Amino acid sequence: MGRVDEELGDGSDERVQSVTEFTRRVKELLETNLRGGWVRGEVSNLRPQASGHVYFSLKDAGAQISAVMFRGDAARQTVKLRDGLQVVVYGGVSVYEARGQYQLIVRAVLEDGVGRLQQEFEALKRRLAEEGLFDAARKKALPAVPATIGFITSPTGAAVQDFIRILTRRGWRGRLIVLPSKVQGEGAAVEMAAMLRTAEELGIFDLLVIGRGGGSLEDLWAFNEEPLVRAVAGCRIPIISAVGHEIDVTLCDFAADVRAETPSGAAELISSRFIDAAERTRRAAEAMKDALERAVEAAGERLDHARSRLRLLSPEAQVERGFLRLDDLSGRLSLALRQAVQSKRQQLAVPAARLERSSPEFRVQGESQRLLALWKRLQAASPASVLNRGFAMVRDEQGKPVMRRADVKAEQRLDVVFGDGEVKVRAE
Question: How confident is the model at residue 260 (pLDDT cuts 50, 70, 90)?
């Protein structure tokens, strides 16, 4: 401070102020001397906060100013702010001391029609659509499995990093070439159109992607400029437009063959087609393997059948079959002979039996047996047999049997015959 004081001189009326002090003076001057009023402009860079505060910019062709609408004022508004909306706002100026930035504190919002950029967008869209630039018949089909992809974007942006990360995570196989270009600001559209022509001249790309991350309408305006839109529509290589967030729409989206909502969405689209193709290839490989196995198995069966037939037709097999047939015929002949002999024997058995029954010897044997039986019966009935059983026979002197007691007289001499002899007795 001593050296500064020396430079200013002891008699100087000016005092050195800090940044905070000077900023506070500016804040007091602006807020005191500049009364609030109505301001017309176009909304851009809209950033609603979780706290309820809404930050945005108001701009026209010559300038722009930062604006904020606090939660209480925002809750009372009926106009729903969006990028590109032309509005008339009422508010006062204030200074945010921490950044030394002045801003408009908005208290009320009235809609004032579509903004200039939005009007230009709609006018160019209608004119190009009438030319047929966006017709579906002009669009080319995307390759199912592109081997080489070119991505026209800023090499330092987050979009290309997200694109690469998703392709890697989903297992995509191929070559990705980043074609560096400005994607925002003056000259960006011309540079991207030139890169499209370069990609066509190289002739190595199967698919092109053009895009960037999200932003306000003016940040994405390069993708609405007519030279780039025409270059995208006329590109001979299939092209995907992947610009901004889901809600962002540019004319390049209409001119491209396919629109992806985000660069990440484009990566998912490409990798999904790759995954589908890989799955179809896997299923085809399995089907081919199964078909090959079935064909080999069928061929093996035909070969075994041919070998069997060849063995059957070989001389050795024919000789073996001859021996088998000879053995079979021999067995059948032996069986037939045995059966014939047995049948003849059965046929001869009946007359042989009849002849045997009619022979003299058979009759002699029969009569002998009959005589023997009679003899046995006669022996059983003979007197000797009776006597031997304990009986006795009485005879008179003349030897006649005495049959009754009345025939016996007193003092008559009798003979009693026993089985073992006779006894002389006299009746009393």
Answer: very high
Task: Please state, for a pLDDT cut of 90, what percent of the chain lies above it.
Answer: 33
**Most confident listed range (122-126, 251-255, 376-380):** 251-255
Give me the helices (H) in 203-262, please: 226-234, 251-255
Measured CA to CA, the distance from residue 241 to residue 344 in angstroms comes to 109
pTM of the shown model: 0.48
pLDDT at 383 > cutoff 90: no
Other CB atoms within a 10 A radius of the CB of residue 420 amount to 7
* Residue pLDDT, tens place only, 190-220: 999 999 999 999 999 999 999 998 877 778 8
For domain 2-114, the CATH class is mainly beta
Q: Are 200 and 236 in contact (CB under 8 A)?
A: yes
What is the C-alpha R_g of the chain?
69
Which residue, among 45, 37, 79, has the nearest Cα to 64 in the 3D structure? 45
Distance of CA 66 to the CA centre of its chain: 56
Contact 384, 419 (CB under 8 A): yes
* One-character DSSP codes across 54-110: EEEEEE-SS-EEEEEE-HHHHHH--S---TTEEEEEEEEEEEETTTTEEEEEEEEEE
Give the C-alpha separation, 350 to 348, whole Å: 6
CA 138 – CA 366 distance, rounded (Å): 131
Does residue 365 carry a pLDDT above 60? Answer: yes
Q: Which residues contact 231 (CB under 8 A, 6 or more apart)?
A: 192, 193, 196, 197
Domain boundaries, the chain: 2-114, 120-276, 392-426
DSSP 223: G
**Nearest by Cα to 239 from 229, 227, 224, 225:** 229
Is the separation of the CB atoms in 149 and 270 below 8 Å? yes
120-276 belongs to which CATH class?
Answer: alpha beta
* DSSP assignment letter at 184: S
Starting from the edge strand earliest in sequence, which strands make up the sheet with 393-395, in order?
A: 393-395, 413-418, 421-426
Could you tell me which residues come within 8 angstroms of residue 417 by beta carbon, excluding any fewer than 6 positions away? 387, 392, 393, 394, 395
